[in-house]
Structure formats: C-alpha cells, structure tokens
Design brief:
The complex is a heterodimer of chains A (297) and B (123). Chain A is an alpha+beta fold and 297 residues long. Chain A is built from eight helices and twelve strands. Chain A is 27% helix and 34% strand. In chain A, helix 1 crosses helix 2. Chain B has a five-stranded parallel beta sheet, sandwiched between helices. Classes of the chains: A alpha+beta (297), B alpha/beta (123). Chains A and B meet through strand 12 of A and helix 2, helix 3 and helix 4 of B.
C-alpha cells in the first residue's frame, strides 16, 4: 500500500481526536479523549503538531497518526496508533520512520516512548526500529475511602512554584508526562512537604485537575529526603487523602522499583496496567532494514 | 419498570443496550461523556447506572466517585460495562464500591441477568 504522511497541523483538534479514538477502539486499555483533553495534552506535553504526522492512503483514507513532543534535544513519540482496518499495511512503520527522520532533521539526540506492557505488536515494532527498553512504570488508581488513622507529622502545602522547585531536585529520571516541564505547563500543579518527629522528611508533587463539576488528583511524584521511604510515603499519602477525602486519584508512571510502592499499597492503591519506557539515541534516520516500512514523507 | 442510564462514548454500544433495556420494559437514558452523564444522573435520578470505564473527558472510575459523592445518587447501583482486562475491572469494582461488571464482549442474556439481579438487590 502506498502511504502518504501529512503534518498533523493540517487537521483540526477535533479531526485528530476522532482519528486517535478510532485507532484505540480495540486497544488493551481503551482511553478515548475529547478535543479539549487532546488540546491540554498537546499543550502540557509540548507536542509539536507540525512535526507530528497523519498517515493516509493513496485514495485519501486516513490510516493512523503519531505525535511528537519536543524539548531541546529530546523528543517523545506519543499517541501512535493505526486504525484496526489498516493494521499490517506498513502505516505504523511509516509513521515511526517519519518521527525518526523528523527527529534527525531537528538534531534530536534521544527519543523516548512508552508502550503498554503486553502490547506485543507495538513493542516488537519499536525494537525493530532500534528502541531499547529502559524502565517499567506502573499506572495506579486510588478510590476515596475512610482514613483509619489520622496523618502524622507536620505538613506544609506547596503552591505551584514551590512544588516545581521541589520537583527540580528529584534525583531520578522522570518520564515525559511527569517531567518538570510537563508539571510546569499544567496550571494545576501543587505539592506537599512533611517533617516527621523522628527527623524523616519528604515531599509529594501532584496535579489537582479541576473539571466543570469536580476535581481529581493525578501525576503523583514522591521523594523521601530523609528516613524510611515507606514510612514517609505513607504519611505523605495520608495527608493528601485526608485533605482531599473525596477525590479520585490516578498515579501515572510510578517506577516499578519505587521504594514508596509499599506505601501506595498500604493506602489502597492498585495497579491498572504497566508501561515500558523505550529509548533510541542519536537517530540517524529511518531504519531501511524494516520489511514492512511504508513510504516516508 | 426501572429508569436506566447508560454512560458510554460509542453510539453503536448505546444503540445495542437501548434495545435490550427497552425490550424489558425499562426506561432508557444515555450520555456520551462523564460530565453530561453526571448532569443527566442528577436531573433524572435513575434506578440503575450502566457505566463504561473509557470515557473521553473523565474516565468511568472518576465519574463513579462523582456520582457516589452526591447524596441523591450515593446509593444508586452502578454496573460497569467495559473492554478493560477483567482483573483490573474486578479490582476497580471492589475498590470503588460498585455493584457489578461485565467485560466486553458479553452476551445479551448476561446483561439482562445482571440488570435484573442488581435491581432486585436494590429494591
């Protein structure tokens, strides 16, 4: 099949949303969006729609899309998807090749992406294109529930600026969606710092997203400055959920080896699914060895 | 006869479930996103809510919290109809205090039985 690649900024957000939702209709974890949410996504995660792409057949049928977030010399492939009826036509491969070629043109030194664990076709395609697995992350939920014990320690609630200052000191790698830039781009970033009586301390940064009718918490990043991570984590989460007793919470991309995981479990968090982060360094262009690659732009 | 609200973003699924629900003599209402679903639930006060987890604005888990957080809806039974993996759905239903679930694809008979069972329990 002859595949044409078109810059995504030639399509409206509504058209891109419709296409994205159609590509995910049979996804492992269906997560549709509306145009408002896609607009926020583009803004918060520095998605460059001019360098993002839509794949189209020679007769003008849209087949799939891929978006590219760009921050300096690092890029992030996201929202990649192909319509169920256009799978195994080379459209996905052509879209990735386009992203790699675009990244090379822009002087990008490293490209990141995430794939849901057990999405084997996508995982194998990314391996084929030269991406290597780097880390595994958990996406967890927490439903509101009564607190059995009151939180301990002295809590200081942080506004956006102080929360971002704390996040800048985070000593480990943050995935794209939880990175300082993403949290700064969001208008909803808040934080919490605690000091416990035994000298332990730590902080939690999160988003408090306001919908028209209610709010929800998401994008949690936790760090223990001093002391036992489980103990500090329990108290950070206890303060958070005591303060926001009726909020649903969605914790994305918590490292699978995060020392705070026992604290999350103790507070009633459960894993929805896992993501594998993959990276490719210093791309030099499309992988011409790909057997099912479509025509690039 | 019960008033049943289905909150689901895919029109084909709404059409299919509407046929089943109305053929049993129930009143059927629908909404295609979380915020309109919440508003419709508040104004129509359904006897039962059928809820998809993958919604385009806020997802079904979040919406269930909003629904249950309202005094007029806190005891309204909620059945999850979803394509999510069964183990995740089972944990979700338990954690969020929901009343049952069916994973897509499910049989029409299974849906009828689930609706009848939950409505009987709520009566």
């Amino acid at each position: 099949m002859t595949i044409e690649i078109i810059p995504a900024d030639r399509f409206s957000l509504h058209e891109l949303t419709e296409l994205y939702n159609q590509t995910r209709v049979d996804y492992l974890i269906p997560m549709p969006m509306n145009a408002d949410r896609l607009g926020e996504y583009v803004h918060d995660f520095d998605v460059d729609l001019h360098h993002s792409a839509v794949a189209r057949s020679a007769d003008g049928q849209v087949l799939g899309l891929s978006m590219l977030g760009i921050r300096g010399e690092v890029a992030w492939i996201t929202r990649l998807g192909v319509l169920p009826t256009a799978r195994r036509t080379g459209a996905g491969s052509a879209l990735i090749d386009c992203m790699l070629e675009t990244a090379a043109t822009l002087g990008i030194q490293e490209i990141h992406l995430e794939v849901i664990k057990n999405n084997e076709p996508a995982y194998r395609l990314f391996l084929k294109k030269g991406f290597v697995e780097t880390d595994t992350y958990l996406v967890m939920r927490h439903a509101p529930r009564p607190m059995l014990t009151p939180p301990q320690g002295e809590a200081t609630w942080l506004g956006s600026e102080r929360a971002l200052e704390a996040l800048k000191a985070y000593p480990k790698h943050l995935t794209w969606i939880n990175a300082v830039e993403s949290m700064r781009n969001s208008a909803n970033t808040e934080g919490l710092h605690i000091n416990l009586t035994d000298g332990s301390s730590g902080w939690l940064v999160y988003r408090n997203t306001k919908y028209t009718l209610r709010s929800t918490l998401s994008h949690l990043i936790m760090h223990t400055e001093q002391g036992d991570s489980e103990k500090v984590g329990r108290q950070l989460l206890s303060h958070l959920h005591a303060h926001y007793a009726h909020h649903d919470t969605y914790a994305e991309n918590i490292p699978a080896d995060d020392p705070h995981l026992p604290a999350f479990a103790a507070l009633g968090y459960f894993t929805n699914f896992s993501r594998i982060e993959m990276r490719k360094t210093a791309p030099t262009g499309a992988d011409s060895s790909s057997a099912d690659a479509g025509n690039g732009p | 006869m019960a008033r049943i609200l289905y909150i689901e973003d895919i029109q084909d699924n709404i059409t299919l479930v509407e046929k089943i629900v109305t053929s049993r003599g129930h009143e059927f209402l629908s909404a295609r996103n979380a915020e309109s679903g919440l508003e419709l639930a508040l104004t129509s006060k359904p006897d039962l809510i059928l809820l998809d987890l993958g919604l385009p604005d806020a997802d079904g888990q979040t919406l269930s919290v909003w629904l249950r957080g309202n005094p007029t809806l806190m005891s309204t039974p909620i059945i999850v109809l979803t394509a999510w993996p069964e183990e995740v759905v089972r944990q979700t239903v338990e954690a969020y205090g929901l009343n049952g679930y069916l994973c897509k694809p499910f049989s029409l008979a299974a849906l009828v039985n689930m609706i009848d069972s939950v409505l009987r329990s709520a009566a």
